[in-house]
Specification:
262 residues, alpha/beta, Rossmann fold, 2 domains, 10 helices, 37% helix
């Protein structure tokens, strides 16, 4: 496989705290990859570096999804999203006072193909493109079980529905790489198992590459093809789920007693 994203010798310092230290990550085109580690290992910081929320103190972040290597460090989050990278957040960040449908439409604004003036004047082109976007939004909401809630406010949805809506909204931006930050947080085992099946469907039907942060080991081990383990901002292991499950350093640093549950 060819790499879609490369992080090379990336370091992130916050004053005297080194959150990520000399980290290398290779995300291969088309794979389902997990990034795991104990709390404070630096995983979400890695996502924030990839998506332009932070600029790395040192190292390189290179996107290879558009035919040639392109550095991402220095770009703003919306510029990185436009190149084909979308994410969800550990703490859900929906537009709570907008409807489910409006959340999807807001995310897909780049695909509309008209400027502010046709929107202001409600031209025929504007009405046609809006109708097309609404139809596409319903098609996206249907497999997530949210088409029947399209006109409800996002903030009124049950927790699990909000999680699924955030994933659907990320997909509405048309990504090639989807970053998921603890999508199973707060879910019981049955809900987590359904999420695994949904993410497999998303990966297959959208031809996506997925990089996943997750603490529920049943999700990671059942979903990911390759796993990278971080501890104190460094990589301590990379391998298949079987490799990681039996790695003594991983067991000591992260899995601990949970090893019997995976």
């Amino acid at each position: 496989m060819t790499n879609l994203l490369e992080l090379t010798a990336v370091t992130q310092r916050f004053g005297g705290l080194v959150a990520v230290h000399n980290l290398d990550v290779r995300v291969e085109h088309g794979e389902l990859m997990g990034l795991i580690g104990p709390n404070g290992a630096g995983k979400t910081t890695v996502f924030n570096l990839i998506t332009g929320i932070y600029a790395p103190t040192a190292g390189r972040i290179v996107w290879l999804g558009n035919g040639k290597p392109e550095p991402l460090h220095g770009l703003k989050p919306h510029q990185i999203n436009a190149r084909g990278i979308a994410r969800t957040f550990q703490n859900i960040r929906l537009y709570h006072n907008m409807t489910v449908l409006e959340n999807i439409l807001a995310a897909g604004h780049r695909a509309r193909g008209y400027s502010i003036f046709p929107a202001f004047l409600h031209t025929r082109r504007f009405r046609q493109r809006e109708a097309e976007q609404i139809e596409l939004a319903f098609e996206l909401l249907q497999p997530f079980g949210l088409d029947g809630r399209a006109f409800e406010f996002a903030g009124s949805l049950p927790y699990g529905d909000q999680r699924r809506l955030e994933i659907a909204r990320a997909l509405a931006t048309g990504p090639r790489l989807l970053l998921l930050d603890e999508p199973a947080a707060g879910m019981n085992p049955a809900e987590a198992d359904r999420l695994v099946e949904l993410l497999r469907w998303v990966h297959r039907n959208f031809s996506l590459t997925v990089l996943l942060i997750e603490h529920q080991m049943r999700v990671v081990m059942n979903l990911c093809q390759r796993i990278q383990v971080m501890d104190f901002g460094k990589t301590i292991a990379v391998g298949t789920p079987a490799d990681i499950r039996n790695n003594p350093r991983v067991i000591a640093a992260y899995l601990g007693e949970e090893r019997t549950d995976v």
